Amino acid sequence: MDAILDELTRVAARLVVEEGLDYASAKQRAARLLRLGARATLPDNAALEDAVRDYLEAFCGDTQPQELQALRSLAARWMERLVEFRPYLVGAVWQGTATRHSDVCLELFCDDPKMAEIALINQGVRFDAGVATGVRGEPIAALRVQERVADWPEPVGVQMLIFDADDLRQRARVDGRGRTRRGDLAAVRACLERTDDA
Prior knowledge:
The protein has eight helices and five strands, in the order ααααβαβαβββαα. By secondary structure, the chain is of the alpha+beta class.
């Protein structure tokens, strides 16, 4: 990795950890901060994830494990509330790189996208509805709520990406490194129990 790309990767990693940016946004903002042109070579996600883990180890080792545990507990509670939609935890909270600045990201699988909205309304939950970009660039429905975590000054975003029920079988089960890219409620509970035992 050349020096400029290495610096860009480090800056992007800091933005991911300290500001909770997603990888794509962090790379673009890092390139702007370093005054690189629009044609600058950006790091791939695997290199950025490695840099994020390095940053966490160097600067957040005393706080990040507890923050991750709190976020996984929050995810499990929401997954229990939405169990009828076969929720899966994805992203930084699942992969273990999340901090209090990270969103909890859930994938829900519904026969009708409106069913998740109706469930939240019936539970008295205030939410924002919008559109997100799926893994193939397609638009997908997304719901977002804000949740308070004890002693944290800012609320945590819980994002729910709504997929068709048939998509569950088609969604990739592993990432580019052969790791499970998502976890169901049982897997999240297992992560919480392992951390409790540590």
